[in-house]
Amino acid sequence: MSFTTPLYGLFLIFILFFFLGICFLFPVNRSKFFRFYFLIASYLFYASWDYFSLLLIIITSLTDFFVSRIIFRTSSISKKRLFLIFSLIINLGVLFSFKYYAFFVKNLSYSLNIFNLKAEWLPTLNLLLPVGISFYTFQSLSYTLDVFRGEIFPETDIVKYFLYVSFFPQLVAGPIVPARVLLPQLENFFISEENFIKGLGLIAFGLFKKVLIADRLAFLVDIFYENPSAYSWASTIIALLSYSVQIYCDFSGYTDIARGSAFLFGIALPENFHAPYLSLSFTEFWRRWHITLSNWLKNYLYISLGGNRKGKFRNYINLLLTMLLGGLWHGANWNFLLWGSFHGALLVIEKSLFGIFSFDPVVSTGVKFKKSQFLGIFSRWLFVFGGVTLLWIPFRAPDLKTTILVLKKIFIYSKGMDYPKALENEFFSLFLLVIVSHFAYLKGFELETYVQKIPKVLIVFLFVVFLHFIILFTRDSKPFIYFVF
After folding, report:
1. Are residues 422 and 389 both part of a single domain?
2. Residues 179 and 250 placed together within one structural domain of the fold
3. CA-to-CA distance for 411 and 395, rounded, in angstroms?
4. Do the beta carbons of residue 343 and residue 391 sit within 8 Å?
5. Same domain as 393, residue 261
6. Least trusted range by pLDDT, from 3-7, 198-202, 423-427
7. Residues 331 and 390 in one domain
8. Cβ of 290: how many Cβ atoms within 10 Å?
9. What does each C-alpha distance from 351 to 45, 281, 347 come to in angstroms?
10. pLDDT digits (tens, 9 = 90+) for 144-187
């Protein structure tokens, strides 16, 4: 049940009407009922992909709910660690089996063949990757780790915790929300005029980015990667820039719809993107791109490895390992390892040369620069944006061979087939639109602020018209890119 299908719209409308009906019939003492209601709705939402995968979420939820309570009650630090390790084995074991086992067996077999050894004793598992498994596993693990560190108390309401792990708007592709942020909000659900209008605005904006920008650029990207050697240097550049815009609008569009859906019921999910393509360093890019994953990697991996507390060399190693594992989190593929490794190397270079490194989620906006600084700032922006765009190649390419081929086409000018003029014009229009929206966002433009000034009846009418318009474009809508992670 993707966000861009009419079925999700009907699902959301049904939840809203049922929710309002309960509010009318039972004006008091309804919090527990609402949590149970949203838990069932979330499980039905996820089961629309695969009923078996629902069992994995329940296993993850049961494990961390009870292990965290045991950790809290245990006074011995060694026993606390033992139960934490048990939680890590269950959660990461399930994730490894479904996402990484086949990759591990394939590469181990290849390595053994070099020495004329066989790996036939290793069983093969043909398992379908459950949608969103990386997201809900990280979210549940963060709760257990927070309890182990003594930063939060364990949840006593099992339904509330199960809902925290599986809350439908952010279940499939995030944001990854810490327990201290989401669990308190699940105490009470409510509908307010302000949140409802804000939610509608975010949903509309997310659908616009996904359906009318990302999906249209996906066509240019897909046909290029079907046969990249056939295209000219200019078309190669257009394809790379198209993917930069596509993945941003696709993923941030999903996040907007997720946040908007949650806002309808008074739940505020954190921001996940903050004009990332205006970053002036790779450090800043990771403060603005997939913010909740960056925070997770910082809080539960980078700091756990020692952070910057054990000298410069160890700090650089920790940075590289964090980004390497961050790349591996995206998928069992050497391309993702390459992507994460290069981002880690760039962060190390920045820190070693300029001493700038932080995983803080968002930098300040609205900074004014002198005209004399423009050339330097533009050069920095161009270098960072160009670097990020180049590193999207291994992220998108199906294998290392294609990655190397595309990189060669960029740095070695070659003739070939050009995109039709109509597709080129469409690309330039959409690319310009995204850049302008970045600047508008930094200048303080927020869509929901302007939406709230429109008469409420007109807002609902326009939203319904907009949904009908979007449905015309969603018949061939592509799955969200991050669904496979």
Report:
1. yes
2. no
3. 19
4. yes
5. yes
6. 3-7
7. yes
8. 23
9. 43, 11, 6
10. 999 999 999 999 999 999 999 999 999 988 799 999 999 999 98
Active site residues: 330
| Mean pLDDT of all residues belonging to the chain | 84
Read off the amino acid at residue 61.
Answer: S
Residue 362 above 50 pLDDT? no
In the numeric block, the tokens 């050497």 are attached to: 334
Q: What's the rounded Cα separation, in Å, for the pair 68 and 60? A: 12
Tell the burial category of 126 from Cβ atoms under 10 Å away from its Cβ (0-12, 13-18, 19+).
Answer: exposed
Of 457 and 395, the one with more pLDDT: 395
Check whether residue 93 and residue 32 sit in a common domain.
yes
**Above 90 in pLDDT, residue 433?**
no
Range of the domain at 177: 6-99+131-188
Beta bridge partners of 231: 417
8-state DSSP, 357:
-
pLDDT in tens, 10-44: 788 788 878 777 777 766 667 788 888 899 999 99
Q: Does 196 fall in a domain?
A: no
Is the separation of the CB atoms in 338 and 327 below 8 Å? yes
State the pLDDT at residue 446.
57
Contacts of 391 (CB under 8 A, 6+ apart): 339, 342, 343
Which DSSP string do the residues of 397-449 spell out, in sequence order?
SSSHHHHHHHHHHHHS----BPPPHHHHHHHHHHHHHHHHHHHHHHTT--HHH
Q: Would residue 116 count as lying in a domain?
A: no
Q: Are 107 and 119 in contact (CB under 8 A)?
A: no
SS3 231: strand
CA–CA gap between residue 15 and residue 45 (Å, rounded)? 11
Task: Tell me the helices (H) and strands (E) count for the chain, helix number first.
Answer: 21, 0
Tell me what pLDDT residue 164 has. Answer: 95
Domain count, the chain: 2
